[in-house]
Amino acid sequence: MSPDLAQIEETIRAYYEAGRRRDFGKLSRLKASQGFSKFDDLPPLGRQGASEALAYEELAFSSISDLQYEIRDLEIQPLSEDHALATFYLRLRGVVVENYTFEGRGVARESRVTMVLRREAGEWRILHLHASPMAGEKGV
Known about the structure:
The protein contains 3 helices and 5 strands.
C-alpha cells in the first residue's frame, strides 16, 4: 500500500473511531473544509451539508453505547493526485438505551459505504459520504 493509500485508510478509520469515542470536534475536522455532503442510510434520507450531517451524527453516535464497528473489503482508488474514491462494507453494533425506561436493546446494522476524499493541506478529508443499507437492513 502506498503512503497515500495508508493515509486515506487512516482517515476513514479515524472517522468511525471519532464517532465511537464521541469526539465530535475530530469528526468535523475529518471532513472537507468546503463542499462536504452526505447521504446517510438513517433518517433523514436527504442530502446533508456539513453542519446538518454533524448534528445527526452527534445524535446517532450519542444514542449508542458500547459501539463497535468493522470495516470490511475496503478498496481505495486514486482519482487524481488530490482525490480518491473508497468503497467498503460497514458493520455497526451497540446498545441503544431508551431514555425513559433505561432499558437497552442491542442493534446491529450493515451498510455499503462510498466515500470521496480530497487532500487539503497535505491531509486527506472526506468530501462526500454515501451510505446505503444492505438488503433487509432497517434503521437503528
